Amino acid sequence: MPFDTAQIARLGGTWGAMGSLVASDGSANHPWLARLADSLEPLRDLADAAHFICVLHGRHPGVIDYALDHARVSLERDWLEAAANAFSTERAHLVRIVAAAGPLPSTPGHAESEAAAQAQRHALDMLAQSDRAGCAAGAALALAIDWATIREVLDAVAIRLGLAVPASTLPLAEETVSVVDALAREPAMERAMLFGAQQVFAQHRGLWDLLEARAGARERV
Question: Do you know which Pfam families this protein is assigned to (predicted)?
Fold first, then answer.
């Protein structure tokens, strides 16, 4: 995995504000994601998660692809190119899971849930296309960092469905930290980068809240 709890703790002092943001706002802190990743919930809840993750990140171009178009410096561009290439494999893994999972489970209030997820997708797209130097890169960095945790959920679904789990080829934690450190040397760039990252983490937390609420609604039927 590109990031895990031990790595975040070890690197926290190196990458400063971004490390603190990951520790406080990253998806790893959400209890519903943890239950899904541990495969403690019914398959329908895991499949539901895969479908909605696909709404946010299953289309091309995505967050990292858009951010690549807004790269300002070579280190940033090199990292984004590597991440974009790797994320194409992640996207294919996600699409295979969704196809194998079949239709979405029947859930009260589905139209509202779908609209909320589409709004999240739009918000992510706008962040990744921001012309504010550092914002798009921050969004892409946050996605790559958070994806390590999201991947745990996807892999749990894949295993339950009997699918192969490919290795992630996203940039290593140390490479990502070096990009964060380089961008953070300019205060304005750092502020924009942290804003983009914070907003991505917020959209992901909103997704886990939504998925937990959907699971609760199905239980009440």
Answer: DUF6975 (PF22391)
Cis peptide before 61 (omega within 30 of 0): yes
Residue boundaries of the structural domains of the chain: 16-101+117-220
Residues in contact with 35: Cβ distance below 8 Å, sequence separation at least 6, in sequence order: 41
Q: Taking the CA atoms of 62, 66, 67 and 71 in sequence, report the sign of the dihedral they define.
A: positive
Cβ pair 100, 161 in contact under 8 A: yes
The per-residue pLDDT for 2 is 47
- DSSP string over 108-154: TTHHHHHHHHHHHHHHHHHHHT--STTHHHHHHHHHHHHHHHHHHHH
- Res 178: pLDDT: 86
The hierarchical CATH code for the domain 16-101+117-220 is: 1.20.910
Q: What is the pTM of this model?
A: 0.92
**Dihedral sign, Cα of residue 56, residue 61, residue 66, residue 71:** positive
CA angle 99, 103, 108 (to 5 degrees): 145
Q: Which residue has the tokens 């999972």?
A: 101
Query: What SS3 state is found at 4?
Result: coil
Read off the tokens for 16: 């400063």
First to last CA, the chain: 37
Rg of the chain, C-alpha, whole Å: 17
User: Cβ(71)–Cβ(179) under 8 Å?
Assistant: no
